[in-house]
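User: Sequence recovery, please. Input:
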């Protein structure tokens, strides 16, 4: 049914970069046979999932949304993919994204943008826009995304689905093409909180192949999603998010959601996180610095695109020509920014200062979580904008991440929950819950 749905609607949505009908059906049949033989299978066995094309898969190409990796078929599976396979989830295909996950609209994909199923003249958010569009359009019941500065939560908000960025280190990054290694996390995207929790449980947990993986039991997210009891829960509304720059329709939907939480018995207070407003500035130094380092591996020698500028070209000339042809403008912009921020003489002024701000933001979270159990804010300042509307203005696009970035800088988990449509645009609004590290279960309970 999902494959039929993809065949019927993905030409319009461009959510998938690759569909593996045969592979998905083979897994589904295998699960059926094992179930018929009486085997006890995982809860999600047989339920199909779409995987962001930043996560490597054997048997299917992984492009990272870039010309640099066009046609590359990885020689191994990411740990999260291995876990999906072990649990018997058929993998429908690989979903569209901004090139190397850099963007908030999916317009930086080298393969054309995915579109928002609510209005195909609009962006689905990004960078996990393909995963979000696929789930929102019933092309897949579940998907995996990645979130470095909001790339799961923001597209979830723009398309009216649930998206979760787990605690940093909670889900393995092994086999996830690195954007900014100290910020990247894989997480679930789904139509309900419980569905997201079920995927979370499958992919989370310690992995010796990821040196930042946390060696502790996975928080009881499924149980929390089933419980859904906020009575007595202390919920902090982040004072800094919701005023200037936030669309009135987003604000109003957020206020209604907070009222519902209070009615359900939560104790709602306002909390100030004074350094959150510097999050974007710090992120746009830390992230490009890591990007410039991580993307150095695309050197046209080991794998990926190789362009020969002329006969007898030197290795350096081949690298330059290949990187020029293989990377899009946004990726180049970030490599330049990052290389600059890390250069000697500038390192302390830029990278060093950004790291200090990062610590201050982590302290804001610590102070807030002494007062409340979870924090809440709108996920994004606006609803989905028109394709092309912000293309000429990278800064206005960067501002869309104001509310999601602090969680990545501090490593804490966040969940975006759809809370209805904005009255001024008729488009979905998301509310974001934030919790202390390794308390991901609180997000699922509150949502
Ligand atoms: N939109 C943010 C950026 O462009 C976040 C990207 C992400 O989370 N992968 O960097």
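Assistant: Recovered sequence (447 residues):
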């Amino acid at each position: 049914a999902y494959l039929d749905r993809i065949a019927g609607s993905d030409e319009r949505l461009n959510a998938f970069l690759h569909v593996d009908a045969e592979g998905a059906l083979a897994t589904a049949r295998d699960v059926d046979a094992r179930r018929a033989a009486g085997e006890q299978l995982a809860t999600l066995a047989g339920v199909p999932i779409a995987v962001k094309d930043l996560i490597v898969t054997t048997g299917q190409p992984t492009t990272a949304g870039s010309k640099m990796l066009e046609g590359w078929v990885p020689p191994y599976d990411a740990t999260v993919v291995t876990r999906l396979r072990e649990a018997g989830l058929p993998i429908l295909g690989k979903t569209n994204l901004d090139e190397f996950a850099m963007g908030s609209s999916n317009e930086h994909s080298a393969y054309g943008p995915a579109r928002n199923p609510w209005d195909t003249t609009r962006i689905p958010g990004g960078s996990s826009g393909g995963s979000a569009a696929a789930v929102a359009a019933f092309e897949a019941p579940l998907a995996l995304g990645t979130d470095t500065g909001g790339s799961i939560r923001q597209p979830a908000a723009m398309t009216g689905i649930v998206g979760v960025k787990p605690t940093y280190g909670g889900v393995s990054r092994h086999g996830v093409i690195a954007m900014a290694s100290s910020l990247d996390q894989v997480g679930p995207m789904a139509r309900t909180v419980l569905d997201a929790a079920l995927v979370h449980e499958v992919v989370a947990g310690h992995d010796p192949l990821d040196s930042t993986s946390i060696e502790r039991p996975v928080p009881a997210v499924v149980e929390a999603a089933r419980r859904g009891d906020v009575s007595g829960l202390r919920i902090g509304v982040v004072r800094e998010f919701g005023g200037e720059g936030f669309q009135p329709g987003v604000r109003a939907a957020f206020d209604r959601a907070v009222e519902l939480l209070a009615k359900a018995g939560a104790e709602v207070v306002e909390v100030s996180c004074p350094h959150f407003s510097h999050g974007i500035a710090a992120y746009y130094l830390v992230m490009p610095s890591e990007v410039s380092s991580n993307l150095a591996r695309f050197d046209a020698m080991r794998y990926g695109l190789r362009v020969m500028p002329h006969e007898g070209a030197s290795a350096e000339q081949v690298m330059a020509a290949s990187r020029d042809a293989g990377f899009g403008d946004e990726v180049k912009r970030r490599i330049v920014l990052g290389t600059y921020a890390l250069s000697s003489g500038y390192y302390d002024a830029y990278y060093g200062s950004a790291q200090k701000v990062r610590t201050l933001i982590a302290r804001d979270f610590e102070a807030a979580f002494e007062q409340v159990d979870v924090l809440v804010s709108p996920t994004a300042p606006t609803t989905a904008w028109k394709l092309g509307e912000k293309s000429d203005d990278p800064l206005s696009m960067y501002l869309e991440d104001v509310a999601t970035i602090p969680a990545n800088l501090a490593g804490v988990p966040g969940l975006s929950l759809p809370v209805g449509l904005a009255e001024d645009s008729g488009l979905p609004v998301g509310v974001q819950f934030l919790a202390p590290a390794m308390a991901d279960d609180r997000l699922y309970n509150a949502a």
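Residues 101-104, 127, 147-151, 179, 287, 401 surround glutamine (CB under 6 Å).
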